Amino acid sequence: MSKKRDIKLFVNDIKESCEAIFDYIEDMNFEGFINDRKTYSAVIREFEIIGEATKHLPQDTMDNHKNIGWRDIKDFRNLLIHEYFGVDFEIVWNTIKNDLPKLHSAILMIQDSLIIGEKK
Predict the structure, then answer these.
(1) Is residue 57 part of a domain?
(2) Is 77 a catalytic residue?
(3) What's 92's DSSP letter?
(4) Which of 87, 77, 20 has the alpha carbon at shortest distance from 53?
(5) pLDDT value at position 3?
(6) Is 69 part of any domain?
(7) Per annotation, catalytic residue among 45, 65, 71, 82
(8) Domains identified in the chain, total number
């Protein structure tokens, strides 16, 4: 039987996966990304972790950050897991460039609020 994980651990998983993706694609363009199987495989795995960890966030946490497409994140994870043979790398790349920075910022805010909440 597995032990219940604290929300802070799931938040940290999302933060670390965002930062790993940023590291993986640093100095890389789209063409380089789609031609580097190790990189795109690693990125997809990190998105799977983000999607899975997101499922464990409390609804009120997500409600406090409505600018993030939480449902889209979960759906994206499901697409990557179940439709692995039809992954659209342009969507993955655009998600990295357009959506991931917003998610990372929100996760940092959530992480800070959890730390502040512990101190009260």
Answers:
(1) yes
(2) yes
(3) H
(4) 77
(5) 65
(6) yes
(7) 82
(8) 1
